[in-house]
Amino acid sequence: MTDVWSNWSGWVKAWPKELAAPSTEEEVAEVLKTAAAPVRVAGRGHSFTPLVETDGTIMTMWALRGVVDHDETTQTARVKAGTTIRDLGPELFERGLALVNQGDIDRQALAGAVGTGTHGTGGALGSVSAAVEGFRLATASGEILTCNRNENADVFDAGRVSFGSLGVMTEITMKCRRVYALEETGGRMPIEEALARAPELRDSERHFEFFWFPFADQALVKFLKETDKEPRPRRRRPDGEMAQSDKTMVWACEASRYLPFLRAPLQKFLTSASGSRYSGGAAEDEDREKSKVRWSHDAFPSDRNVRFNEMEYAVPAEKGPECIREVGEHMRKCGINFLFPLEFRYVAADDAWLSPFYNRDSVTISVHQYHKQPYKELFAGVEDIFRRYEGRPHWGKLHTLGAADFETLYPRWGDFQNVRQRLDPTGKFLNAHLKRIFGVS
Questions:
Q1: Which of 88, 224, 331, 404 has the fewest beta carbons closer than 10 A?
Q2: At what angle do helices 191-204 and 320-333 cross, to 10 degrees?
């Protein structure tokens, strides 16, 4: 019996019989031939669902890191699957390349981000998975498949978002672009204005998102736009090192835990303390002076050192403002204690079979709960709303859906199941969580 494995929030734990740490593709294949099932691959533990939970084998990919090579003409890069997005940015930058888009957390391993449909924001921009040009996959038998639009095309369509259910990604080819800088602006905007203007702001900005504490009447809007201004270097905080804003958030969460009647005034305080007013399509002078210009790999991520659990659903883009309004109203009235804000982002449609954005431009709405507080009752009420809006859950974030639900939500669900059963007929990669998802007894 190995030591306990835990995800980032601390709520998912596993005690596997074996812990494998291959350093080459060949070693991955050899491990799969004899490993105790279920075999699950652990990236950096940023999934909140029990994707990695197993009493069989946990395989870590930390030793498979780095850019294998790149092509300046096609602007693509071959990347080992265990490379974190944080490490990938500088490596691509040295080669004159950058990811087209990424999320505001960059601690994940690339394979984990791809496999769960992780995303950033941008009405014309897809998820990390949408930028995958190809990958190499180690199957349950130890065979290595090369998958792209021309070779093993069905595995490519199924595997770009497959959360480790088809095999182990060892290498991923990413579509990139030339290096570019982004300027961040934002501030406080009345929530009703943010909701009314959301489609306009989506179309006028490369990146638009907002955070909203449901007891506050203002949202915190954030924009990123390309710029020719000179980027400034950024110091990234290591795990555990908190900025003053993080310390304030922890203090507020702890206060709310013991004095839940403070949740409304604390949310209003956190909103008012988070920036000056943003109106008229431009930041006020104070915000313009504080605007940040950085290379893209430094501009996208935020240092998230306050731990939480999260639920996120993707709903049709045109229904996003209405949906988050209803979610906020429910959270105010339900009487359940919470403090974190809601997050609202746009994501473009793609064609990966199990992508939450399959054939549908979407808005993602995220609900967070401080890691020391129970989340199930809060998330259950919100999930009921998401389901009425035809929501598809993020595969790495908490949900209660099963096979019957997914068969309705995903037009290619049956095709995915056929590929999965062909590649893994004995269910070597299926833990209890995935058996429920796929309806396997």
A1: 404
A2: 150
Q: Across the strands, what pairs with 323?
A: none
State pLDDT tens for residues 257-273.
Answer: 999 999 999 999 999 99
Name the residue among 60, 69, 56, 54 with its Cα closest to residue 28.
60
Phi then psi for residue 161, to 5 deg, are -130, 95
Tell me how far the alpha carbon of residue 31 is from its chain's centroid: 28
Listed as ranges, residues in the chain with pLDDT below 70 are 1-2, 279-291
Which residue bears the tokens 């038998």? 141
Per residue in 219-263, pLDDT (tens digit) is: 999 999 999 999 998 888 777 788 888 899 999 999 999 999 999
In contact, 19 and 2? CB cutoff 8 Å: yes
* Strand, helix or coil for residue 121: coil
For 181-205, letters b (16+ CB in 10 Å) and e give bbbbbbbbbebeebbebbbebbeeb
In whole angstroms, give the CA distance from residue 428 to residue 17.
15
CA–CA dist 440, 435 (Å, integer): 5
Amino acid of residue 156:
F
Cα distance between residue 408 and residue 422, in whole Å: 22
Give the closest residue to 109 by CA, choosing from 90, 134, 81, 135.
81
Which of 59, 48, 41 minimizes the C-alpha distance to 10?
48
Could you identify the residue written with the tokens 């990811």?
99
The structure tokens listed for 39 are 């075999």
